[in-house]
Amino acid sequence: MPDLGPHAAFIVWAYVGVALATVALIAWVALNARNVRRRLAALDAQGIRRRSDGPAA
Amino acid sequence: MTDATAPTPRPNWFSRLAHPGAFLNWSRPAILPLAVLSALCFAAGLWLAFFSAPLETENVGTTLPILYIHVPNAWLSQFVYAVMAIASLGTLVWRHPLADVAAKSAAPLGAAFTALALYTGSLWGRPTWGTFWEWDGRMTSTLILFLIYCGIIALWRAFDDQGRAARIAAVVTLVGALNIPVIKFSVDWWHTLHQSSTILVPGGPRMATSILVPLFLMVIAFTLLFLALHIVSMRTEILRRRATNLERQAAMGAR
Predict the structure, then answer these.
(1) What residues in A contact B51, CB-CB < 8 Å?
(2) I need a labelling partner for B254 at 20 to 30 A (CA). Which of B93, B107, B142, B238 fits?
(3) CA of B211, closest CA in chain A: separation in Å?
């Protein structure tokens, strides 16, 4: 571990905060995508789909 | 008299690429390479920053490592807004359906990057200037940018009719774009605590190459991350609108 000097706490907190926020942002985007795919899958299971996607099976 | 048998003009390459259905097709294979490239740039940038570049310089001091996460987030806070402003022109001038999807999807990402720029800036400021916050030109205009992002997100959520929300949000976005040059030139117009430009200056960057290389890698890493997240968010928004339309059609059919 490199020696970060007398202000190490500020550097560590900056990196921890950015890392947590970035992971949270990625997770939020991924969760939103999954929720919408589930909504479309539920509609598809009911036979509700766009005409351009072909008839219900 | 018009010729009814004349073929309809073929849409240009941009119209074909920007069609929401076509966008869903071509954007999917782009996500993984962007994410992998971003991760590689993060790894290389962080390794160089902590194990190759100096950890302090005479003019910045020992808080130099914060630079590698502050500058990319500050850059993205303005870059994302520029993306939204261009998309807003697309909404107002060409009424393109993908333009408002792009603008809406970018807003929460821009707000997050701006919040991180403010957060890392205040952690930089405390040991460097002796204060977490100062109402100077650069910091205040960046805080205003964050509030503009929040206002635009609220606008999108305030309307059920997304077409109407798109037009109002586009006007607000373009008016808010006046703040971007204020942020950029605030350090030149006013005497601020924030240092003046050191990278994009005439005559080249005033910074050692050993610091510039990891800094650019981190800027590229964050920018690629934004592009990947933006594409995923745009795809989600297109599919969400499809789902909402289908649910509405199903509800009307059930009556």
Answers:
(1) 2
(2) B238
(3) 16
CA–CA separation, B242 and B238 (whole Å): 6
Write the residue in B50, B112, B250 that is nearest to A2 by C-beta.
Answer: B50
Question: What one-character-per-residue DSSP string does B195-243 give?
Answer: ---SSS-TTS-SS-HHHHHHHHHHHHHHHHHHHHHHHHHHHHHHHHHHH
Instruction: Show Cβ contacts of residue B2 under 8 Å, excluding neighbours closer than 6 positions.
Output: none
Residues of B in contact with A27 (CB under 8 A): none
User: With an 8 Å Cβ cutoff, are A4 and B239 in contact?
Assistant: no
Q: What pLDDT shows up at residue B2?
A: 47
CA distance B163 to B156: 10
**Could you tell me the end-to-end alpha-carbon distance of chain A, in angstroms, rounded to an integer?**
59
Q: Each residue of B135-170: pLDDT tens digit?
A: 988 999 999 999 999 999 999 999 988 889 999 999
B61 beta partners: B57
Rounded to 5 degrees, what angle do the CA atoms B121, B226, A16 make?
A: 45
How is residue B191 written in tokens? 């005497």
Is B23 in a helix, a strand, or coil?
A: helix
pLDDT of residue A54: 62
How far apart CA A14 and CA B124 sit, in angstroms, is: 8
Distance from CA of B70 to the nearest CA of A (A): 9
- What's this model's pTM, rounded to 2 decimal places? 0.89
pLDDT at B196 over 90: no
Q: What is the pLDDT of residue B170?
A: 96
- pLDDT tens digits, one per residue of A18-43: 999 999 999 999 999 999 999 999 99
Contact status, residue B211 vs residue B54, Cβ threshold 8 Å: yes
